[in-house]
């Protein structure tokens, strides 16, 4: 049973990652622009000041346009950084056009660990969450590290709203979900807002 669940998760991840990595630059640009417009219109984001995002890799929906729009509207953007002492956990650090970045062990760029630029979960308004696949109930599969599941544990006790972002085709009717997976209340894709409460 556990074996077939793990196999399913692996297969879904491989399939979706393959599809998204094969998008053309034009498709990625168009999706990134549409997502940015969608996100800037979304009322919780429009009213937010402190927003965490991620730098896209592996065909993830392009966050570049959204980051530029958030900067332009004077919102503060933060990126995840692997926790130096607690494996599997993330910290979030301010990201500006001047922020120096370095590659982490997953070859993902992250800000240098400058404690003056750190934001706590209590201070965050919105966490934009990467996804490999999702369904109508807001269930998600990530890349398999459990980083966002840990970050979002008991998120209702905080002030922030988690919002998943992905390409439209990453939607699936059914997903092999595990009991530690945290559901998302809202998901934004280039052409749709999914309310999952
Ligand atoms: N809250 C948690 N505490 C401890 N371990 C966890 C927690 N959430 C998930 N994990 C562990 O992390 C591993 C990966 O989880 P999972 O496959 O759900 O990752 P994911 O949701 O795809 O990744 P991510 O959240 O980084 O996008 C699992 O083996 C799981 O046991
Ligand atoms: Mg998970």
Automatic annotation (TrEMBL):
Signal peptide: none annotated. Coiled coil: none annotated. ATP binds at residues 140-148. Keywords: ATP-binding, Magnesium, Metal-binding, Nucleotide-binding. It is an enzyme of class 6 (ligase). Substrate binds at residues 55, 60. It catalyses: (6S)-5-formyl-5,6,7,8-tetrahydrofolate + ATP = (6R)-5,10-methenyltetrahydrofolate + ADP + phosphate. GO terms for biological process: folic acid-containing compound biosynthetic process; tetrahydrofolate interconversion. The keyword Magnesium applies. It comes from the Bacteria. Its cofactor is Mg(2+). Its EC number is 6.3.3.2. GO terms for molecular function: 5-formyltetrahydrofolate cyclo-ligase activity; ATP binding; metal ion binding. Belongs to the 5-formyltetrahydrofolate cyclo-ligase family. This is 5-formyltetrahydrofolate cyclo-ligase. It comes from Candidatus Pantoea carbekii.
